[in-house]
Write a structure and sequence with these properties.
The protein is of the alpha/beta class and about 375 residues long. It has helices spanning about 10-15, 20-30, 40-50, 60-70, 90-100, 115-120, 140-150, 205-210, 235-245, 245-265, 295-305, 335-340, 355-370, and strands at about 55-60, 80-85, 100-105, 125-130, 155-160, 165, 170, 180, 195-200, 270, 285, 290-295, 345.
């Protein structure tokens, strides 16, 4: 049997809830309400309820969300910010554009920030730590908080891939000074272009974030600080608000797919799989991605491509510190480097049928000679 299983089905972002989304978009366009209007306010209100936070703002994209959050937290020139090297370049770029120095550290066996490595990287210049809530999983935030309290570090969470993920019942993005999200189309909650969000429970941060995303203007329209133009437009907010209503259904489906992958592939000795949905009661994972560690990774990728299955090596196959062009000349993170030679992501999205997953798994088993 042969079939096509794309890594991500982009039309599904629209067609999944087509009728309701289209009606809402027409409503917005007929009103001519495009920037900072009621649809954005409604989405922000619902996002606050979903995450149980005091402040939530829609912004242009996930990178801008991080830049604004770092700015509002007072991170700037002369500061150092610790971040896992297993993340997208946007995490590090936001630190760079804040004026601070990027300090990449190891990821752990769970592919998340390794807190022991982070602890060794703390200096007198370290002002913040950026846990990246990767692949739909939340870091061991009790350890991150302990480290931050010991050294008086601000926590700015990059939760671009983890809206709805939880650690000990608390949502990713709500543990520190601020948390940020991406609504890029391929995210679990995705819009029809770029979009992002930033949230906080800190009153001072809440005020600053509001005007930093809108040219430094306060609620009365007076410019009170240097800001930028980083506002989630009403059309995207309307789309996201529709999809947010069904969001837990999408998460539940991803967790079902993760169960299938785990049950089918866990017996293969050449693979390391993500934790299964019931692996650890402290963690509630949403499975933005299904990232595995595979022996003969490149050969496996080629074999799956030939079988009509789309896969992806995340972040172009480079950890942050491996981008030597950006000045990371003398940094060695051997565990992360070893993992990067073996990382590969299998299809994980709600357009997949159970049969699609069984087909993918059958081909992975065929490659490794496992019945």
């Amino acid at each position: 049997m042969s079939k096509k299983v794309p890594f991500f089905n982009y039309p599904w972002v629209y067609t999944q809830y087509e009728e309701e989304i289209l009606a809402k978009m027409k409503e917005v366009m007929n009103k001519g309400a495009f920037i900072l209007q009621s649809e954005l306010e409604q989405f922000e209100g619902n996002l606050k309820k979903f995450l149980n936070v005091k402040y939530a703002y829609g912004v242009a994209d996930g990178t801008n969300a991080l830049i604004i959050a770092l700015d509002a937290a007072g991170i700037g020139a002369g500061s150092e910010v610790i971040v896992t090297s297993h993340t997208y370049i946007a995490s590090a770029a936001s630190i760079h554009y804040s004026g601070a120095t990027v300090v990449p550290v190891e990821c752990g066996m769970d592919h998340m920030l390794d807190v022991a490595s982070a602890a060794k990287a703390v200096t007198k210049k370290t002002k913040a730590i950026m846990p990246v809530q990767l692949n739909g999983r939340t870091c061991e935030m009790d350890q991150v908080r302990e480290l931050s309290q010991k050294h008086n570090l601000r926590i700015i969470e990059d939760s671009a891939q983890a809206l709805g993920s939880k650690f000990n019942g608390q949502c990713a993005g709500t543990f520190g000074k601020a948390g940020t999200f991406s609504f890029y189309p391929a995210k679990v909650l995705g819009c029809f272009g770029d979009g992002g969000g930033v949230v906080t429970n800190d009153d001072e941060m809440g005020v600053k974030l509001a005007f930093l995303r809108d040219h430094g203007r306060n609620a009365t329209g007076e410019v009170v600080d240097w800001g930028t133009n980083s506002r989630l437009d009403n059309l995207q907010a309307a789309v996201l608000d529709v999809k947010l209503k069904y969001y837990m259904n999408d998460i539940d489906r991803r967790r079902e797919l993760a169960y299938l992958y785990d049950s089918e592939l866990k017996s293969i000795p050449d693979l390391e799989l993500p934790p299964s949905p019931d692996n650890d009661s402290r963690h509630f994972d949403i499975y933005q991605n299904y990232e595995i560690v595979a022996e003969k990774r490149d050969e496996l990728k080629s074999f799956l491509t030939g079988s009509g299955i789309g896969t992806l090596i995340q972040f172009g196959g480079k950890a942050i510190h491996q981008h030597k062009e950006l000045g990371f000349e003398d940094i060695s993170l051997p565990y992360t480097e070893e993992l990067y030679s073996k990382f590969i992501m299998l299809p994980m999205n709600t357009s997949l049928s159970n049969d699609d997953v069984f087909y993918v798994c059958s081909k992975v088993k065929e490659f490794y000679g496992v019945s």
